[in-house]
Amino acid sequence: MKATAEVPLLKIDDYRWEIPQSYQEGMRVPGLIFADENILSSVRHDPCLQQVANVAHLPGIVRFSMAMPDIHWGYGFPIGGVAATDPDQGGVISPGGVGYDINCGVRLCRTNFQYDEIKDRMKELVGSLFNQVPCGVGQSGDIRVSKQDEREVMIHGAQWAVKKGFGVPEDIEHCEARGSIEDADPDKISERAYERGKNQLGTLGSGNHFLEVQVIDRIYDAKAAQIMRLEEGQVTMMIHSGSRGFGYQVCEDFLEVTRRALVKYGIEVPDKQLSCSPVHSPEGQSYLAAMRCAANYAWANRQCLLHLARGVFERVFKTGWQKMGMDLIYDVAHNIAKFESYEIDGKKKMLCVHRKGATRAFPPGHPELPEIYREIGQPVIIPGDMGRNSYLLVGAQGSEETFGTSCHGAGRMLSRAAAVKMVRGRSIQRELEEKGIIALGRGRHALDEEHPQAYKDVNEVVSVVDHAGIAKRVARMRPVGVIKG
Amino acid sequence: MSVILILMKPFERIEHTADAGIRVYGKTVEELFENGAKGMTEIMAQGVGHGIPILRHIVIPSMDLEGLFLKWLREILFLFARDKFLFHKIRTFSITDRELTSEIEGEILDAKRHELGLEIKAVTYHQFSLVETDRGYEAQVIFDV
Fold this sequence. Notes:
- The complex is a heterodimer.
- By secondary structure, chain A is α+β, with helices and mostly antiparallel strands.
- Chain A has a single domain (about 10-90, about 105-485), classed as Alpha-Beta Complex (tRNA-splicing ligase RtcB).
- Chain A has 16 helices and 19 strands.
- Chain A has helices at about 35-45, 50-55, 115-120, 120-130, 145-155, 160-165, 170-175, 190-195, 220-225, 245-265, 280-315, 370-375, 415-420, 430-435, 445-450, 460-465; strands spanning about 10-15, 15-20, 30-35, 65-70, 80-85, 90-95, 105-115, 210-220, 235-240, 275-280, 330-335, 335-345, 345-355, 360, 380, 390-395, 405, 440, 470-485.
- In chain A, the strands form four sheets. In chain A, strands 7, 8, 9, 11, 15, 16, 18 and 19 form an eight-stranded mixed β-sheet that branches.
- In chain A, helix 10 packs antiparallel against helix 11.
- By secondary structure, chain B is of the alpha+beta class.
- Chain B has a single domain (about 1-145), classed as Archease, Possible Chaperone, Chain: A, domain 1 (3-Layer(bab) Sandwich), CATH 3.55.10.10.
- Chain B has helices spanning about 1-10, 30-45, 65-85; strands spanning about 10-15, 20-25, 45, 55-60, 85-95, 100-110, 115, 120-125, 130-135, 135-145.
- In chain B, strands 1, 2, 8, 9 and 10 form a five-stranded antiparallel β-sheet that branches.
- The chains are: A alpha+beta, B alpha+beta.
- The interface between A and B is medium-sized, with 38 and 31 residues.
């Protein structure tokens, strides 16, 4: 891989940087990175900038190979990468442009509580969540599914979970794609994926996945906040998880398929991990059908997790969840490929939009939004690290430039080993507690590896998308209770 | 003495911004494969070797050594994902022109007894290498976690 110091960047404005198409032979479009000077300096020597240029080689790519301000290195595509391809111009679908954790995503749930009302119960609440929401490596839940049920999960996603009683129809209305995308085909799923998926519904996982109890500490947009029934001091809950072993296996299976397809279709890419197939090919269609199964599995999983968490609140506060106002505000995918219509050179085109560590952020008025949010834009949920903030934004008109896409999180800065080394001799749990955050981790280094300094400051990341006009801040939350695998 | 110990270590963790990786050593192919499986397992859980031993068979159709090593790790990761089987050691191991066959010993994950680490999503091709050295074999592999 070429040294990244050589990747040329042209400043367009304070928040946009271009990698010229002339940088490398074979680039079909320029690169476009959304960042301010400070963020840029933190990734200036990271291979992720070269990855933006590599993605620009993909057949059928339209306008730009883009990266959001939370950009960091990923397999093939950078995390924070966005690329739209035109299937009618030989456009490809790349499993590396979605990632191993297909439809990893976030959901945000409100409550009627003001933090002051439940402050003294936090230890009990977080302890109960930790004990009753399965988290950590190898931990399976009580929700077991038969093979037939698993097929239903793959086709119906969160709608399957609601039908089983793990939620209410309003939850579905507040999910991207109503918690299920069409044209999922369970026949494209390997036996191994079935096996890995059968006991992982309603489990959080490990790594950067979490469940957080948060408190809103700032409102930026009073009107949007009012529509979402949010105000300062109010308690919210955020869940970050994905398609678990099921999705990982689907990705692994199809990386093999698309590696072979590179040879079959004579596609040249600078990095083998950008393996891909034309959208209009049997391999491309098979991956898409399988990816949709995994995306639907993830929506079902987050719905089950919400159901489990609501149950914990009910037992701790001895009140029904509906009475506590635990309504879902929204659920967004941040590792996915979808077909969406955009105007390119004056013509309506159906493009294949890859979002890898990037969140859909449709602007106000978009027909796919639930009616309640149509006036304000799509809720965009951005988790930060467990010591600082997370954000709720709404998609803005500027997202047309990014194929309706915003950032997805803070973005990792330190390796796990470096993070552990940095805090040796310190107790992250105690440090967080001193800041009023109760954090419980299952794995031996779960909290050390994920400590706040291992991440970029999400405040800076969000500030870039806000200033660039992609998405607008609505509310800022700070964590008060965290459970981690 | 300490120098010799360092040279003989079976595997070590390597740093990677987003993920976890190991560098693995072995005097023989069998030792390399055993140490690779141990190194990967240790990322997920520690304290293996004191539970009720369980046996599993692995059969992989023949391919080059690099391919076999990656496939071997993927098989062991799958056994963990499906059965919570934690690898402990190799009992038998052979590679013929046709296939790799091995009987391995391990135990079932028990959160009360094992110290949990990180879930591994996948064994990746990124920065993968396997080379023959003066002392045997050396491999490097990065896991998506």
